[in-house]
Amino acid sequence: MPAPVTLPRLSWGSPRAPRALLAHGLGSDGALMWRYGTALADAGWHAVAVDLRGHGVAPRALDYSLAAYAADLAATTPEADAPWDVVIGHSLGGAAATIAAAGEVGWTRRLILIDPAIALSDDDREIVRVSQEQAFADPSIEAVRAAHPAWHPIDVELKARATRRASRWAVEQTSLQNADWDVRTAAAALAVPTHVIGADPAVHSIFTGDLAAEVLRNPLVTMSVIAGAGHSPHRDRPEAAVAALLDALA
Length: 250
Description:
Distance between the termini: 33 Å
Mean pLDDT: 95
Number of helices: 11
Strand order of the largest sheet: 1-3-2-4-5-6-7
Radius of gyration: 16 Å
Structural class: alpha/beta
């Protein structure tokens, strides 16, 4: 794997509790995983969210390959230098966590993937490109609120801030440097219990259909879908997203 960078952390809950790592999606940052962080803390977990390279206040770099994102996550361990009890990755964070978990035995005891970017079609890539262009064109709170009127005010505030703090170059390079965005081989090699929380295909999901069926051939992978939620269930339908996460951990 490429040389890792050290990822900054936010945390919720007692450091003595079971440990969960949260990895966000493209153009976001660790703070935007707050719904999961607070719910996990309330359920007796210690949740740690990181800013991925090029995002938030994380180090900038030249390499934005999926392998580089995965190397950063694999190098991120609990302070006790023990395995994570669970790693939770959304979208890009889900792809990177899949590579890290498949390649680093003992890094985590289990994996939860939120509408993960396991393989992107040309249509998926175009939707991502347009979405990121729109976000960077106007990263104001007003623009985010207009695009997502049902989101919680904290999500609106944090999404606007995350866009302003992310490197636009890094976000663009993440697409350009991963022309073949496909981590199905890593997903097939997963050797820890893994649960996918999918978005509703009727709204928008990047993990559905033949792709989901292929990944689910791994007997350690299970899946649930949050009806009515788009690609970011924790912002679109937060109560259902949190319930699905806690059910997967039960």
